[in-house]
User: Which sequence fits this backbone?
């Protein structure tokens, strides 16, 4: 063990638990690391494999400071940060040998890009065509994400091991009207995840409670929340002290030794472009920022007022037509659009959207808790043309069929029961191949005749029947109809702090700390020498009070004694550790 490791071990033992936890977290130490004491910790942190993990995580400033220190220069203002990472000697600005070897041959990164002016928009960001295109992209992104959230509400989106949605899932999304562009869908879903609207849980992507609330917000508020979420989720190295972000042109170089960093920042810049924060490729290099990006970049709340000037105004009225369609003359207010899409299938999505009412769509609305009177009242309120007679007739017909299939829970067995007064409908459900995973089994019931039962929970069975367009209704133990609620993921719990993650490891290191650091260090040194069969000059205290130096080829260590061959007399000696005053490594004369 080197003197550098000993100095680091002593410095580590003097740090607070919070400082040690921050170091271990940044150095990606496993909480279950098998360290016995601070000497083990020091050796592990100076190990080349550990250094290879931390170097790519260094910021541009830290990397520049480390290269400067390797050349003997002053590392500058990052010296303390590098020392906290155990990359600089505990005192001074020198590098331990293993750190110097890891840095050797690396070039110093370029200096940081200067920050934008303290006030005023960036030069050139008033380019009208580019700003209009950016606003249109933001408008489209918000609408696309809303469609994705509605599909996630119907059922979780399956994730691959890498955390992205698979191609088969993307095909399903494109079949439901989302863009047929896998890379674009990844970026849109990443925007939603960053804003907390979607939550990855057990290899699935679920709509969160925050996402369900976001769907009902007006368009400008939707955009503002997405921008705030995007900014808050940016890596710390891209954030400024006032809560904004550093110049975009500097993003790709902030982790200069990380080969994966350019791809990550490339994805972030694409997301910024989708949110309308960045001019498109036809804008001049000096005009990367849109006018409405300035506030969030400086750490203020996003202001959608400037963006709103370039996007169509939302409307709160529709035209209902005799052919069972509805036409919105502009982007419909999200809350109205959400409810209308619960009872009609959207046929086209643009600044003017169209919707079509069908028996299936109205049956789905009724199964989701709507009533005939409630649907009529809603349509009469938002329609500029009243409710046509064909639509009234279709709604009444659907309402008369609704509830023919009832889904409840048997109080005695706890099994889900599916019953219907129409035996033919129940028979169709029993043989429906799409419902086979439910494991529905026919049983005789004294009260209801033949019923279908399954171990699958009631809500899952209900939504499966509804998705297959059966006129299902949820009922409670007394048979009363309940309003179903789609399940959403709760807000993510706060991740444990570094101190909490490393609590057990820190306690173990504190407990193992020796009262006599010199004695502990000597034992480590002798143990290491025995493993390497090293040659040591050992200073030994003699019984008469004098000291004598012996040159030993160390052959063993244990039981409080050091064993080795005396090079001067060629005899084996065994020395009590308590008699050893000091040791120093020497080159083997026989080598």
Assistant:
């Amino acid at each position: 063990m080197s003197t550098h490791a000993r100095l680091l071990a002593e410095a580590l033992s003097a740090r607070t638990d919070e400082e040690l936890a921050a170091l271990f977290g940044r150095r990606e130490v496993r909480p279950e690391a098998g360290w016995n004491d601070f000497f083990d910790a020091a050796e592990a942190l100076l190990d080349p494999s550990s250094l290879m993990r931390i170097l790519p995580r260094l910021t541009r400033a830290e990397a520049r400071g480390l290269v400067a220190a390797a050349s003997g220069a002053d590392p500058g203002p990052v010296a303390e940060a590098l020392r906290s990472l155990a990359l600089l000697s505990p005192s001074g600005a020198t590098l331990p040998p293993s750190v110097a070897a890891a840095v050797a041959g690396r070039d110093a990164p370029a200096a940081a890009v200067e920050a934008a002016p303290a006030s005023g928009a960036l030069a050139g960001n008033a380019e009208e065509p580019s700003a209009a295109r950016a606003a249109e992209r933001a408008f489209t992104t918000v609408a696309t994400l809303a469609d994705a959230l509605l599909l996630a509400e119907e059922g979780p989106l399956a994730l691959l091991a890498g955390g992205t949605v698979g191609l088969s899932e993307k095909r399903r999304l494109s079949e439901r009207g989302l863009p047929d562009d896998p890379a674009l869908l990844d970026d849109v879903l990443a925007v939603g995840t960053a804003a907390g609207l979607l939550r990855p849980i057990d290899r699935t992507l679920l709509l969160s409670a925050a996402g369900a609330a976001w769907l009902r917000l007006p368009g400008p508020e939707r955009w503002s929340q997405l921008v705030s979420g995007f900014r808050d989720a940016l890596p710390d190295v891209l954030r400024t002290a006032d809560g904004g972000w550093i110049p975009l042109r500097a993003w790709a170089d902030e982790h200069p030794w990380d080969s994966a960093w350019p791809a990550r920042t490339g994805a972030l810049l694409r997301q910024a472009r989708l949110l309308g924060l960045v001019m498109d490729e036809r804008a001049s290099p000096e005009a990367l920022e849109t006018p409405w990006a300035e506030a969030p970049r400086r750490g203020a709340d996003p202001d959608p007022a400037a963006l709103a000037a370039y996007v169509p105004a939302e409307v709160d009225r529709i035209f209902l037509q005799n052919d069972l369609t509805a036409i919105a003359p502009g982007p419909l207010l999200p809350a109205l659009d959400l409810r209308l899409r619960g009872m009609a299938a959207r046929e086209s999505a643009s600044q003017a959207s169209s919707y079509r009412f069908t028996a299936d769509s109205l049956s789905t609305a009724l199964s989701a808790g709507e009533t005939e009177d409630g649907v009529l009242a809603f349509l009469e309120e938002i329609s500029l043309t009243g409710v046509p007679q064909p639509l009234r007739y279709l709604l009444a017909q659907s309402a008369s069929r609704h509830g023919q299939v009832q889904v409840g829970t048997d109080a005695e067995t706890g099994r889900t029961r599916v019953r219907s007064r129409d035996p033919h409908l129940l028979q169709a459900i029993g043989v429906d191949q799409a419902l086979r995973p439910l494991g529905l089994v026919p049983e005789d019931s004294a009260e209801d005749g033949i019923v279908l039962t399954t171990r699958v929970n009631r809500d899952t069975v209900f939504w499966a029947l509804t998705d297959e367009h059966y006129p299902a209704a949820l009922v409670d133990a007394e048979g009363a109809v309940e309003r179903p609620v789609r399940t959403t993921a709760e807000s993510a719990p706060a991740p444990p702090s570094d101190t909490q993650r490393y609590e057990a490891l820190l306690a173990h290191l504190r407990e193992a700390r020796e009262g006599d650091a010199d004695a502990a260090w000597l034992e480590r040194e002798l143990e290491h020498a025995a493993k390497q069969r090293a040659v040591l000059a050992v200073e030994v205290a003699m019984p008469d009070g004098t000291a004598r130096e012996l040159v030993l080829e160390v052959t063993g260590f244990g039981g409080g004694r050091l064993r080795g061959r005396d090079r001067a007399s060629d005899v084996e000696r065994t020395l009590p550790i308590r008699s050893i005053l000091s040791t120093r490594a020497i080159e083997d004369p026989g080598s």
Remarks:
- The chain has five domains: 3-103, 128-308, 319-400, 405-482, 517-585.
- The first helix runs from residue 3 to 13.
